[in-house]
Design goal:
This protein has 72 residues and is an alpha+beta fold. The chain has a three-stranded mixed β-sheet. The longest helix is centred in the last third of the chain and has 12 residues. The termini are far apart. The mean pLDDT is 93.
């Protein structure tokens, strides 16, 4: 499981937050995944959670919709 250092608010150095979850429909369609991660807070606390990530297929579809001027 990937370990990510976060600040006291649960935000990574890259500005990622970990309060969103990919919907079952998006996961089933192969558009997103919920990747398990461990957050490490400054006080040493460790919290297991997930990070929603878009897949290559999801990016391809989003890019084509943007190019066609379709709303997301």
């Amino acid at each position: 499981m990937k370990e990510i250092q976060v600040d006291r608010h649960g935000v990574s150095a890259e500005g990622d937050t970990f309060d969103l979850v990919a919907s079952p429909d998006a996961v089933d369609a192969g558009l997103m995944v919920n990747e398990p991660v461990t957050l490490i807070y400054p006080d040493g606390r460790r919290v297991n959670t997930t990070q929603a990530k878009i897949t290559k297929l999801g990016m391809t579809i989003a890019a084509s919709q943007m190019a066609a001027g379709k709303p997301h």
